[in-house]
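In this section we turn from sequence analysis to structure. A common task in structural bioinformatics is to predict how a protein folds when a small molecule is present, because the ligand can shape the pocket around it. The inputs are simple: the amino acid sequence and a SMILES string for the ligand, here zinc ion. Study the lines below before reading on.
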Amino acid sequence: MSLLLSLCLAHAVAAPIDFTAAGEETASFLQEYLRTDTVNPPGNELRGAELLADLMAREGIPWEIQESAPGRGNLVARLPGSGEEGALCLLSHIDVVDAEGERWPADRQPLSGVRDEEGVIWGRGALDMKSMGAIEAMTLVLLHRERVPLRRDVVLLAVADEEIHNTGMRYMTEHHWDELGCTHVVNEGGIGLADMFFDGQPVFPISTGEKGVLWLRMVATGEPGHGSVPHGGQAPERLLRAVERVRAREGSPHWSPEILELLRQVGEDKGGLAGALLQRPALVKTVLRGKLMGNPLTRAALTDTVNVTGFGGATSPNVVGAEAWAQLDCRLQPDTTAEAMLAELTALVDDPAVRFEVLHELPAAVSPQDDPLYRALERHTEALFPGAVAGPVLSVGFTDTIFARELGARGYGLEPFLVNEELLGGMHGDNERISVDNLTRGLEVLYRSVEEVSVAPGGAWIEPPLHVPSPGEGGVVELPLPDPTAP
Ligand SMILES: [Zn+2]
């Protein structure tokens, strides 16, 4: 076979995707997305949903917008597959938290979407998480352009109000989860950290689960009275004693398989004496215990935490009320139930005049590491970020994934971007930004992972339908089609 012919055949089989060009396209979209004001409150996520819808419409991908309330738009776009496997959901939130523009450079403001001379894009949401939304949207676009035959539907889901009440994802899981049909979810959760354990070793924690949430009001009661005569045992004093007991509590480490596996992989990559130590769970649990429990973040990852986050119950200064309360934010390991934590706190406080009221409860949920999507994310991250280690973690905070896991979906949290501590501080802080290089690599990690778990080798490409039913009305809506006269 001539060289020319074999080159032609190779091309006919699969032209490689130009990820540099796709990264540039993603960057331009992200700039526009960052300029779209979806600061929550009030959110106005419909604006962001419409921007994503425009992109889908230009590419001929069916989409719909579901509003949980006026202006609180959630976008769904779908590429159909053969249905051999359940749908894969690429999840993101459209809303962003507010920013203090006066603390940012004047020419790189939170809603500017400016790209500076170093190829860095600035704006609130550059990391949390419009960048992830942008690479998810681009992944759909590329699968569609490449006419990749799919064995499962690939769904883009961008929701409102993650930052405050999770109403977007709650609405979608309560009203539309069955029709979405997603068995797997990719969302925020982990992000690559330079020098996490050792200098020069980037670590990408992939969140396979989230700690449970138990928000409590600890209420102390007692005889009310005049402030001029201190009595023992009135409500504020009882509350103070209870709070002191709660604060003195030292949690004990729960050595989850996830943390031991992440440390093992870090150790394997590192080598040497430190590497050997990290690969032996018995040594990690003894020699490293003090170090891990001494750092607030790793301690939170290892233990059930109880954090006193506020107080109430005061009236006027000269009145001792019948009740005083503190609010507690408890985050629980997967093997700790809310009942067990309540029993522990009750025993610890040891005062019949103090009761606990449950304000909110979400059980912890963990997805298995032994999953093709998890493995694909791990492998492609390590391939595209030289020298990186990717491994599982249980997140200390929760994301919208928790609602999908509750309904049986497997969820994996990874923003495939590499940041240092300063850049990480931009999330909910000042000067949030992302480099186009990061965005491009992240896009390739996500695209390759999604393609690997969704492609139907030898299968047929399925063109998405031109009409999509409008849920709730049972009718159909006209899809905006690409303008054939456009250049
Ligand atoms: Zn977020």
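Residues 1-12, 468-487 have pLDDT under 50 and may be disordered. As an exercise, try to locate the residues that line the zinc ion site and compare them with your own expectations.
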